[in-house]
Structures are given as C-alpha cells and as structure tokens.
Amino acid sequence: MVTYSGKAKDVKVLNDKEVQISFRDSISAFDGIKKEELPDKGITSCLTSVKLFEILDGYGFATHYISKIDETQMLCKKVTILPVEVVCRNISAGSFCRRYGYEEGIRFEKPLIEFFVKDDEHHDPLITESVAVQMKLVTENEAILMEAITRAVNEVLIKIFDLISLQLVDFKLEFGKTTAGQLLLADEISADTMRLWEKKTGEKKDKDRYRQDLGDVIVHYKDILARLNAIQKIPKYMPLSTVQVIIRLRKSVLDPAGEVIFRSLSRKGFNSVESTRLGKSAEIVFNAVPSSELQSEIEEISAKILSNPLIEDFEFKIQHHSEKNEKEYVEEE
Questions:
Q1: Other CB atoms closer than 10 Å to residue 39's CB: what's the count?
Q2: What is the pLDDT of residues 231-288, one digit of tens each?
Q3: Taking Cα atoms as reference points, which of 188, 152, 153 lies closest to residue 76?
Q4: Domains of the chain, first to last
Q5: Cα(48)–Cα(222) distance, rounded to whole angstroms?
C-alpha cells in the first residue's frame, strides 16, 4: 500500500520506524505543469541518491537512508518531513536569476542559503528564517541546524563533484524528524535536486536539460552516476562545528557587578542606558558535522559545566565552520 505518492516517488510505511521509497520514471517541472515519463529515470535517480547518501553517511551526516532494496527502492527511517526546504547556491541560476534579475553564472563569495515553503499551490515561496520560525513551520534551533548542516553538506559535495570534473551550482535539501526529535537529511539527493555543470565547458547536466528542452536528460543523469561510481577514494574531510554559548543571570537574580557598571555609566553621562546585566560567553569548536546529537551534547555541556542552573540561563548557536586544512593539523601534531 502506497502511503504517499509524490511527483516522482512513492513512499510506503513498513512499520513504526521504516519506510520504503520507490523511484518512478516520472519527471516534472514548473510545479507539475510540464511532466512525462523517461525510461530509466527511476533507476538513475535512486542509485544516485543511494551513492550520495552513502557518501554523506560516511562523513558522519545523519540521514534517513538505511540501505538499498533494489535499483529503484531505498529503505529509509520513518520521519516527518519538515514543511521548509533549504537551497544552497554557489553560483547564480534558476529562480534566483528570475527573482532578482541577475544573469546566470555569478559566483557568490559565500554560499547563499535560502529557505522555501513546501507549497506547490503557492509555487514554493521564498521565506526568511525568522518568518518560518514565527509561523511555527520550524523551531529556531531547527532553522539554525538546517542551515549549518546545509553549509557542511555543500562543502563535502563540492569536493566530491570536483573529483569528477563537475561544478556544483546549487542544490536543495529536505529534512525530516524522527519520533525522538532527531533531525535527518531526507527525501533524495540526485540530479533532480541540484544543478551540475561541466567544469570545462559549462554544459548543463541536471534537470535544467528537461526544463529548458536541451534533450538527452537521462544520458546526462547516467553520466553523473557513472562518474560517481568511478570514484575510487572519497576525499578527506575534516569537519568543524563552532558553537557560541551565551550565559546570563536569570532576571530574578541580583547582579551587583551589573549595577556597578550601570552607576558608572550614569556618572559618565550615558543617561540613555536603562540597565545593565553582565554575562559570559564561550566558543567551543567540535570536530564533527552539525547534528541533533551535537546539539544535545552542547546543551549538556552548557547546563552541567558552563552555567549554574540555579541562577543562570544559557542559549547557543551552532554553525558550520570551514574545515581545518592539512597545514593546521600538521602544526597541531
């Protein structure tokens, strides 16, 4: 029994913890206005997703992928898909160019992260993180973690595709939550969900071939898969996650030091200062990719070591930090 049927995949719930995802030969564009069946599309997208999920799993990312069932089916953890998807852009293309009027091919100095609401009726509108949080589509911690994970995934995928002479232009990620609250990469990662260009020629290898009637869609999808399968050794990746922890006295607790600072400011003529309360901060760098487990570890460290739970509260923000280079590791050793 198919529990859910999407544009190109069927999802069947097997039990409380597992689902079967089946890839069909369907392809569509422009919110389903343009669609057709392409032979071998399901096999190619499934095997590409399997390969990329296995690579990400190997680097320590938490994903819903468990194993390959056959050439068109994956066994995955059962999750509730969040109603917000994340797009990472390294080079201007697609809706970014249409939205802002910029030409295709502009390389961003820093990867651009965008959030979109999963809503075909309204054409998956762009949404800010703050609006997504205010409308309770995601929590603040989820939004922060989704961005951090996406930046880390981008760093890894750039390395992978660079090995096979492909340029990662942009990609979309979807996230799901387990019943235990763990945030996982979900859905699929394939030529349907990213833009890839030949590094030397700029030739498009992705779904834009279908959107723009360039032809040979599956030929190029299969070429991407063949190149991925030909990788003999995945590159080394030295992940870092930086966490900023802010610790403050609870409002009900007196702050004598803050009061001293306040009186000093008043004496020096800073009369617009209403009050002052002192706090402390810590920066912790973890040798790990961003994840729900890392968030839990940070909460435990903050509650048990960095703060006094009787009189202090804390908040933190986890960010992806560009990996250490080989020189830094040699210097440490």
A1: 9
A2: 999 999 989 999 999 999 999 999 999 999 999 999 999 999 999 999 999 999 999 9
A3: 188
A4: 4-229 (3.30.470.20), 240-332 (3.30.1280.10)
A5: 9
